[in-house]
């Protein structure tokens, strides 16, 4: 299974969209149809392209996951035209002893518990052996924030609040999801 860890704000919406939507729709229409006009049709299309070319499932890592069920998140994404299936949401760890926990830790916890996924750092052969029993075979993180873990760097596609999930970033995500992990981690090494 391939997974997209999906942030909403700064990925499928953006400053550019939020500004331009006022030229297309009046205030009443925007507010009456909430959250439909919160999301950019162009950026949603870019997300759909990733889903179509990789058959990836969605795990919501966005703050939109708080106080919403998986079914409610699926409903929001379906309403705005996302064609993917929401299979989960990352846990909300929040903070410990006043220290904010990075989103990357929440993603890693989901990967370990739900996806039986672990990165093996010593050889491509060992990574291949481990992946045989893993549920999640590949993943990508789409987020405009940078609070990911070092070991997630090959999986991280950082968008920007200004422009969101631009076409070239969607193409990068497709490449990550469609590259076997031994190749992604070990640069085609046979070790």
Main sheet strand line-up: 3-2-1-6-7
Query: Radius of gyration, Cα only, in angstroms?
Result: 17 Å
Strand runs, count = 7
Examine the secondary-structure arrangement and name the CATH architecture: 3-Layer(aba) Sandwich
Helix-strand category: alpha/beta
What is the level 1 CATH name? Alpha Beta
Distance between the termini: 24 Å
Q: What order do the SSEs take from the amino end to the carboxyl end, as H and E?
A: EHHHEHEEEHHEEHH
The biggest beta sheet reads: 5 strands, parallel
Average pLDDT rating: 90
Total number of distinct structural domains: 1
According to CATH, the fold-level topology is Rossmann fold
Low-pLDDT stretches: none
Count of helix runs: 8
Beta-strand content estimate? 5-15%
> What is the helical fraction, as a range of percent?
40-55%
Shape: globular
Sum this structure up briefly.
The chain is 41% helix and 14% strand. It has helices at 15-24, 27-32, 41-54, 70-79, 103-113, 124-133, 167-178, 181-186, and strands at 2-6, 57-60, 86-89, 95-96, 99-100, 138-143, 156-158. It has a five-stranded parallel beta sheet.
